[in-house]
Design goal:
Length: about 140
């Protein structure tokens, strides 16, 4: 099997995963990528954009656009820090907080569906191979 074939299959699976994630999350008014911000805020509400960008591994400009869209959708609020007015903090709205269980259930079902045709051993092997592929891509 050639590296190209592996890459093509990996890309195909990755694209299918993104499209299906977007489709399922949109039922909750959440767009792909926003679930990572929500996860951070469900764990610790009131983070600064810098903290959020670092935790989810995106550039600050990317996060700013993401937060603007989330604020327009009523998922988060951005407000000045009470102790340091130069800082902005991001807070979940009631609606954003209420999405925790439905989004977790949706992602959990998506994960189960993704591997439903694999045996337990195949799933473990596949996870190990993906970890090796990631290490190779990171040059480690």
């Amino acid at each position: 099997m050639t590296a190209k074939l592996v890459w093509d299959r990996f890309y195909e699976a990755s694209r299918a995963s993104k499209l299906e994630t977007e489709r399922r999350l949109s039922a909750h008014g959440v767009h792909i990528g926003q679930q990572f911000v929500l996860e951070c805020l469900w764990d610790e509400d009131g983070l600064t954009p810098t903290e959020l960008a670092r935790r989810i591994g995106v550039e600050p400009a990317t996060l700013t656009r993401l937060l603007r869209r989330m604020e327009d959708a009523g998922l988060v609020l951005r407000r000045d820090d009470e102790q340091d007015k130069r800082r902005i903090r991001t807070w979940l709205t009631e609606h954003g907080a209420a999405l925790r269980d439905p989004v977790h259930a949706t992602i959990g079902q998506l994960q189960r569906d993704a591997v439903r045709l694999l045996t337990e051993d195949e799933t473990a092997t596949f996870a190990a191979l993906l970890a090796k592929m990631t290490t190779g891509l990171r040059g480690q």
